[in-house]
Amino acid sequence: MKIKFKQIKSDILLFDETNKDIVINTILHGFNYSILETRHKVAVINYHICFQLLAKLPRVFRKKKTINKLRELKKIYFLAVIDYIAPKIIITYMDNVPYFHEICRERQDIVGIAIQNGARTHYNFDEKCQFEHINRYYLPYYFVHGDHVEEVYKRYNHQSKEIFIVGSLKLDYFLNSPRKVKHKKYQLSLISTWTNGNYVVGNYPWSAENQYRSLLLVKDMIVKSGLSCVVALKTNQDNEINFYKSIFQDMADYKIDVEDRFSSYNICCNSEVILSTYSTLGFELFSLGKNVVFFNLSSDERYTHSDLNTINDLDSKSLLNLIYQMMKEPIEYKYNSVSENQCIQSKKPSYEKIREFIKERL
Fold first, then answer.
1. pTM above 0.90, yes or no
2. Up-side HSE of residue 351: CA atoms within 13 Å toward CB?
3. What are the pLDDT digits (tens) for 231-267?
4. Considering only CA atoms, which of 210, 339, 323 is closest in space to residue 273?
5. pLDDT 10s digits, 133-168
6. CA separation (Å) from 95 to 60, 122, 228, 253, 326?
């Protein structure tokens, strides 16, 4: 861990360095900002922060479990750094980090902005909260991909001052960045949802069991049809490639451009039909009118958002018929209702709307 003894004061503080380049290049450029790194790579130490840590130690010792003591200590550290920087606005691209919600509750004089970075469902705002003993989220100003997030967030009584439906920040960044030319066009692209061993168990489309069943279904369809397929990988790690190769062998190509932050986007946009076993990228590309096939092999209908292009069983013939239909003629597939809309796409990029919001509050 690197120790820093100085931290610049700023009007805007970016909480969590994850995907910081996207936030900086689209939103924060031109503003007076600093970054609070939260991933144990950098720690800021000075007299003010040390004093705050010592003064708040009784709060730590009131916690009974060791894990809760450590969490409280970490939160006190974050608050001490924030108080030292004294920002007017604190913003994060990690909307599902509990520390940010707690900080927004304790520092309500600071404008708290959260930007959705991935698919958010009933699981995220209900079951997962129960598992992690989170009572209520609090995101003062929440910028989300689509109507579905707003509807589900409010259904489970999470708190906010205002929710803005603006679309995906990363998708808008991709659409307004130079594209890499791809010469080979695939018939099918499969979006990797590899989790590096962080499996979810339960009745969900993205559970380890249902994901594997979906992949076997895709394999069976490829065997019967001979369609060309590429797996749009998330990383260049051998574990990920070997996982997919263990299923598809030489029936698919495996691609990632490690120098292209939008590798998966470019691969999918260069394919006729995109296969999404419940991926944020699938919802983003669906908002562009791309041919996207969704899979929901769980028995929970809450995760079937668009009936006509969602596969709910293990019938490879139904999957193949849907793919051929998409290839044959343009059909406008829609969400079942407005409240199921996972991601919108508008002429005005989401980052321009967020920048305008920030300017109004500085």
1. yes
2. 18
3. 999 999 999 999 999 999 999 999 999 889 899 999 9
4. 323
5. 677 899 999 999 999 999 999 999 999 999 999 999
6. 25, 15, 37, 34, 34
Phi-psi sector, 113: left (phi>0), alpha (psi -120 to 50), beta: beta
Q: How far apart are CA 17 and CA 38, in angstroms?
A: 7
For residues 192 and 195, give the distance between their C-alpha atoms in angstroms, rounded to a whole number: 9
Could you tell me if 345 and 167 are in contact, meaning their C-beta atoms sit under 8 angstroms apart? yes
CA atoms within 13 A on the CB side of 44: 22
> Using alpha carbons only, what angle is made at residue 121 by residues 90 and 327, rounded to the nearest 5 degrees?
115
- CA separation for the pair 34, 187 (Å, rounded): 44
Sign of the four-CA dihedral 296, 300, 304, 310: positive
Residue 162: how many other CB atoms lie within 10 Å = 10
Nearest to 293 by CA among 266, 265, 319, 328: 319
- Output the pLDDT for position 185: 85
**3-state per-residue secondary structure call for the chain:** CEEECCCCCCCEEEECCCCHHHHHHHHHCCCCEEEECCCCCEEECCHHHHHHHHHCHHHHHCCCCHHHHHHHHHHHHHHHHHHHHCCCEEEECCCCCHHHHHHHHHCCCCEEEEECCCCCCHHHHHHHHHHCCCCCCECCEEEECCHHHHHHHHHCCCECCEEEECCCHHHHHHHCCCCCCCCCCEEEEEECCCCCCCCCCCCCCCCHHHHHHHHHHHHHHHHHHCCCEEEECCCCCHHHHHHHHHHHHHHCEEECCCCCCCHHHHHHHCEEEEEECCCHHHHHHHCCCCCEEEECCCCCHHHCCCHHHEECCCCHHHHHHHHHHHHHCCCCCCCCCHHHCCCCCCCCCHHHHHHHHHHHHC
Task: Please state, in angstroms and rounded to a whole number, the distance separating the CA atoms of residues 73 and 60.
Answer: 6
